[in-house]
Specification:
Layout: E1 5-6, E2 19-20, E3 26-31, H1 36-55, H2 67-71, E4 77-84, E5 95-101, H3 103-112, E6 121-122, E7 125-133, E8 137-140, H4 147-160, E9 164-165, H5 171-176, H6 179-183, H7 187-194, E10 201-209, E11 215-223, E12 226-234, H8 237-253, E13 259-260, E14 265-272, H9 277-289, E15 293-302, E16 305-312, H10 316-325, E17 329-331, H11 335-338, E18 342-347
Parallel strand pairs: 7-9, 7-10, 14-18
Antiparallel strand pairs: 1-13, 2-6, 3-5, 4-5, 7-8, 10-11, 11-12, 14-16, 15-16, 17-18
Helix pairs in contact: 4-8
Length: about 350
């Protein structure tokens, strides 16, 4: 049976071109050993990790009834193996368990219980971190200045399935954004300094260490026309990153998610500027990547115009937003198209 999606999506900005994320059905966790008990616990933990990545919600496993799915996590396994990881100074083991789950089986589970779905095309973030402590003073944090904190952030973003970049913190960054401007949360300066990276938005974490060793600070983000801000208290810089980034990413992801339901709808799509056979193939491949597309049929080719009949699993506005977010299609304003089932886009060659 075909399905329709109830729209709970808010478009950030029509100029955003999201990044395709892979590995959403794979989890990786540290385990104590290769015993059966550690294996079972690791499978459940990686399955929870996958559900967080797919839904964009770090608290999804706290919702009523979700824990019962961890009991049956084994039946969704597609592949499993061990590898050596960097466990960190406080880890009891550096043994990692990597588990891949069946995409079709997990998707069926997500839809059967009406969980929110975060599409694989997601905004790429630039994450600035600035820290003030009694030893180093006020400085930017990066892989060269504080590698452990930088690695902690990398692992968190990987576990969330969210693409991001760290600033280079080179001479160009120093000229465009000073430490004091970042500390003062001067958004105009942060916006300007972030432009060079071609990302969809930025996050800034500002923290300081108190005399008692507590980490306190603020997170702020700017993605499209959306902004967020909050204060955080934590026992360590690593925990500060967790308590900042998880709520922040939950808030961002909520604007992109949809809830699967039943039924489907059809659209007639016209794509202009498809001038070569290679471009024709690329257009079809790009449409197949969109989770909302349940089926398509090319109905006509007229010069550089391609007409396609689509079956979509969702609201028309959500599909239009997904097309723009792909970064490969430019919406054409057309009153006739708006008042009918027709949509018109220009193909953007890579």
């Amino acid at each position: 049976m075909k399905r329709t999606l109830i729209l709970v999506f808010t478009l950030f900005c029509t100029s955003i071109a999201a990044k395709e994320v892979s590995g959403l059905y794979t989890g990786l966790v540290l385990v104590a050993d290769q015993s059966e008990q550690s294996r079972r616990e690791g499978v459940r933990e990686t399955f929870a990790q996958v559900l967080v990545k797919l839904t964009g919600n770090s608290t999804i496993m706290m919702q009523p009834g979700m824990q019962q799915f961890l009991v049956d996590a084994e039946k969704y396994i597609a592949g499993i193996g061990y590898q050596t990881l960097s466990g960190g100074p406080n880890a009891a083991s550096n043994l990692g368990l990597q588990v891949s789950f069946s995409a079709s089986a997990v998707d069926q589970l997500v839809r059967s219980v009406n969980l929110p779905v975060l599409p694989s095309q997601r905004p790429e973030l630039l994450i600035w971190v600035v820290q003030d402590d009694g030893i180093s003073g006020r400085q930017f944090v990066g892989r060269h200045t504080q590698p452990q904190l930088s690695e902690h952030l990398r692992q968190l973003m990987e576990n969330r399935g969210m693409p991001y970049r760290e600033p280079e913190l080179d001479f160009e960054d120093q000229l465009s954004l000073s430490v004091n401007e970042a500390w003062g949360l001067q958004e105009a300066a942060i916006d300007a300094a972030s432009q060079r990276y071609g990302v969809d938005g930025w996050v800034l974490l500002r923290l300081f260490t108190t005399a008692t060793g507590e980490s306190r600070g603020t997170w702020v983000y700017h993605v499209g026309d959306k902004r967020g801000f909050n204060d955080v208290h934590a026992d360590s810089p690593q925990l500060f990153v967790d308590l900042s980034m998880n709520p922040l990413l939950d808030e961002l992801a909520a604007h992109y998610t949809y809830i699967p339901q039943e039924d489907s709808s059809d659209l007639l799509l016209q794509i202009n500027q498809v001038r070569t056979y290679a471009a024709y193939q690329e257009v079809l491949a790009q449409l197949h990547k969109l989770e909302l597309v349940a089926g398509l049929n090319v109905s006509a080719v007229d010069g550089d115009r391609l007409s396609i009949r689509l079956a979509i699993e969702g609201d028309r506005a959500l599909f239009e937003a997904a097309m723009v977010l792909s970064g490969r299609f430019r919406k054409q304003a057309s009153e006739n198209g708006y008042l009918s089932d027709n949509l018109e886009f220009d193909w953007i060659s890579p």
